[in-house]
Amino acid sequence: MAFSFLQCKVPRGAVVSLYALCVAGFALLTAAGNPPALGISEHSVLESRPVSLQEASQARPVSFPLKVSANNRYLIDSAGNPFFLTGDAAWSLIAQLTREDVDFYLGDRQARGFNAILMNLIENKFASNAPANAYGDEPFLRKGNFGTPNEAYFRHAEWVIKRAAEHGMLVLLAPCYSGAGDGAEGWYREMQASGVEKLREYGRFLGMRFGHYQNILWVENGDLNPPERDLVQAVAQGLYETEPNALQTSHNSTGTAGADLWPQAAWLTLNNVYTWGPVSTEARNQYLHTPTMPFILIESQYENGPDITTRRLRGQAYQALLTGASGQVFGNSPIWYFDGVDFFHAPPGWRKALDSEGSRSMARLTDLFRRLRWQDLVPDVNNRFLVKGQSDGQLRNVAARSADGSMAVIYLSDDRQITLKMGPLAGRQVRAVWWDPVGGGSFQAQLSPFIAGDTERFRPNRNNAGGDHDWVLLLEAEDNDDK
């Protein structure tokens, strides 16, 4: 049989696929006799040398524009293919980088499997010469006046958007980042000075200026729950009037989802989660949000942040994706501001940071999910599948399985025993594989494939390739007579 949850596009001569690994493991196990019916049992990783998976699989070329799927759970491209959003925070890119540096950055991120970048159209603080770009062009002919756009500045921004499209990347583009706290870091004070009508006209200008680029997701607001919401609404509405099919979301204060501030807004087409705390809690809330909207993890902790480990970065991504998110955005200081400022005590050198441990972990994650039918996964938000060993907070273990019971994915944040109530998998033969989110190697669980009982226990019982304790458990059910 074929591993239906894999979509491996492995060239001839490539290293062994997960399917081939499991077939080899199955042969070793059956050579010693058929596995017995186990009832309640504990499975641990085979003590054998790991076999590496094929390095990051090539993403299917994206056919823009994107739109919301029929079930309102994720985005699809114009060919109907699900779009798994893997983003990188590049907030200051347009203002800080030269065109040569932009090309270097985009080439690196594309090679690592990223297909989206989050950035400001106009920067107010975190670039070397903000609000001017690397060529000295400011966004407005009169400082802070949204009614006086500078064509030279927006021509360079257009070039960046076009280059991103050529790299197959979606641009999550903030038209005027409001700014955290009281808005001093962003444009909120200038927005107040400009007023609603001028901001609506600015939104119309953006819709006409960039409407023919189909790789844009507009990110309204920015780190703020604004006292005067009509200012943010004006920009979004102006865009909607000139480009009604454009995707838009809203990046609010931490703990406030995109849809929380704009529950009835016609322009809001994509929801999001933004939190510095445990992601699974916020993701569960948005998965259960009515009406149903697709959502992504738009921002959480950044690499090189205080006391932030690479395991924490992996955990927040997996918590989002296995609790219903259709994508996630990774962040790294100093990449997001490209060494433009020195406020954050991160190691300097954004080029060197491109090959960080966090970036490599995100490449592994992307490789795994692009091999899965991730769009069919249903989060276990009520703990009916992962019934014991969930833990909580940042160490929350999360699980999802397909509605037809053919596959399941579980992320374990640490080395602990979990108990799964097999449900639709029970009575079928089940293959179980431990997958390393750091090194990409994988092992068959002991006694796999096995006949599932009502309840099964699993524990990795070893460190991953990075010396951490987090693992991914992959389960696939098959008919008992399927050899």
Automatic annotation (TrEMBL):
Signal peptide: none annotated. InterPro entries: Apiosidase-like_cat_dom, Collagen-bd_put, GH. Residues 385-476 form the Putative collagen-binding domain. Pfam families: Apiosidase (PF13204), Collagen_bind_2 (PF12904). Gene3D superfamilies: Glycosidases (3.20.20.80). Residues 69-375 form the Apiosidase-like catalytic domain. It comes from the Bacteria. This is DUF4038 domain-containing protein. It comes from Pseudaminobacter soli (ex Li et al. 2025).
